[in-house]
């Protein structure tokens, strides 16, 4: 009996030992984050997450930084690479796989410091020379338009030519033979062409100031006259007459709007070439030497009322609203959210970027400025800011706060958001990037 009891106890002990030696097959199902590298950075920083129980399939990993989803660009069972999202703030990194969440270390979010940087894109000394970058030469370029391929179309005013600059900086002559005139055909002639816009068919429409005509240049370089009989006047109908047509824009229907400076009017030209007055009675009360003109996404005209020192919005019904300026010449960005407190100088060209911001060339103040609406199209509570220029005459490149200009007459924005400036009295095309 004693032997039986001893055997029974030994068996129990042996079985207990075997049970203790069995591996523990259960483990937590959630991902485990061991390390993140780097542990701080700005938006677009790539962070490597080391750990285990991740998925090798990118789409199966939900990664968040401070609760904001990050973009996963690489995935393995033990490693993930993600891009820090904008405005995530600081907080823990989490990884969720199959609805199981693992919580890791804190990522420190740092605000990205952006600034405007000015460089010389094309041009050097005065002249008429084709070439690349600073090997090209211009003479008082006054205006820039951007075509569908991000080429710059430039009114090279005192050279009486229309020039093209590719995104790579290669400058060529599109139209004009370099002497003042109004000949049509190829290459045609111009007489101090001031502004250019591109229509829906890729034609270049030119406000040919001293010819007192609106001209067209086809993509093949053929020059013709759209409106204007060449005399100084205010005639309507066909072909009509103008008195220093300075700036021009067009809509998708082919209707053209012209800032007819010395008539103090905005003129309208139908696709059939019929000229009429859209806004202005000839006095300086409504418009006083209107200059830059552009259409916003709502079809409203944004117009520089130069000598009234305001920028105005004109609806298709002809209703005029002041959006920027006190009516007194000066320089001040004014109160944030109150653009009517800003002071402007002799502003010439104007442009609108994809975000609905209005850029304008404040020539007499030597600055490039921007109107930033709180909501797209609503300028009543916009901020007015200066993005480049010190007010001192010069041609220094560098940050926006130190760069200088000499009579910047126009601005344009390409599809990537790059800003180009016709720096007229420096005979240069300048480029402004935001980084």
TrEMBL record:
Pfam families reported for this sequence: NHL, TIG
| Name assigned to this protein | IPT/TIG domain-containing protein
Q: Which domain of life is it from?
A: Bacteria
Organism for this UniProt entry = Sphingobacterium paucimobilis HER1398
InterPro entries hit by this protein: 6-blade_b-propeller_TolB-like (IPR011042), Ig-like_fold (IPR013783), Ig_E-set (IPR014756), IPT_dom (IPR002909), NHL_repeat (IPR001258)
Q: Which positions fall inside the IPT/TIG domain?
A: 31-99
What keywords is this UniProt entry annotated with? Repeat
Ranges: NHL repeats: 233-272, 287-317
């Amino acid at each position: 009996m004693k032997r039986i009891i001893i055997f029974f106890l030994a068996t129990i002990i042996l079985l207990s030992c075997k049970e203790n030696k069995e591996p523990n097959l259960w483990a937590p199902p959630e991902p485990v984050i061991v390390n993140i590298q780097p542990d701080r950075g700005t938006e677009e920083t790539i962070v490597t997450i080391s750990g285990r129980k991740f998925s090798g399939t990118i789409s199966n990993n939900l990664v968040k930084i401070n609760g904001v989803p990050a973009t996963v660009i690489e995935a393995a069972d033990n490693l993930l690479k993600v891009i820090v999202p904008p405005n995530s703030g600081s907080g823990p990194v989490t990884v969720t796989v199959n609805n199981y969440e693992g919580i890791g270390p804190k990522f420190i979010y740092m605000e990205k410091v952006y600034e405007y940087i000015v460089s010389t894109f094309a041009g050097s000394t005065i002249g008429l020379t084709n070439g690349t970058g600073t090997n090209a030469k211009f003479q008082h370029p006054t205006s820039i338009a951007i075509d569908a391929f991000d080429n710059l179309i430039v009114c090279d005013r005192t050279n009486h030519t229309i020039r093209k600059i590719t995104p790579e900086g290669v400058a060529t002559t599109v139209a004009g033979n370099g002497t003042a005139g109004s000949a049509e055909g190829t290459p045609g002639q111009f007489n101090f062409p001031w502004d250019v816009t591109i229509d829906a068919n890729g034609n270049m429409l030119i406000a040919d100031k001293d010819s007192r005509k609106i001209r067209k240049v086809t993509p093949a370089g053929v020059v013709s006259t759209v409106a204007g009989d060449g005399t100084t006047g205010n005639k309507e109908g066909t072909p009509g007459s103008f008195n220093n047509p300075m700036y021009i824009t067009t809509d998708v229907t082919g209707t053209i709007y012209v800032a007819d400076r010395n008539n103090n009017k905005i003129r309208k030209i139908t696709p059939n070439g019929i000229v009429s007055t859209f806004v202005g009675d000839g006095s300086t009360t409504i418009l006083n030497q209107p200059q830059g003109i552009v259409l916003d996404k709502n079809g409203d005209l944004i117009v520089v009322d130069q000598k009234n020192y305001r920028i105005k919005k004109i609806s298709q019904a002809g209703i005029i609203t002041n959006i920027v300026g006190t009516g007194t010449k000066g320089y001040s960005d004014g109160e944030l959210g109150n653009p009517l407190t800003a002071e402007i100088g002799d502003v010439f060209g104007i442009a609108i970027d994809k975000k609905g911001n209005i850029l304008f060339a404040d020539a007499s103040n030597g600055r490039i400025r921007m109107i930033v609406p709180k909501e797209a199209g609503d300028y009543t509570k916009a901020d007015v800011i200066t993005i480049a220029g010190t007010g001192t005459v010069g041609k220094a490149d560098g940050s926006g706060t130190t760069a200088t200009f000499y009579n910047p007459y126009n601005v344009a924005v390409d599809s990537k958001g790059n800003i180009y400036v016709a720096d007229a009295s420096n005979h240069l095309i300048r480029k402004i990037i935001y980084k």
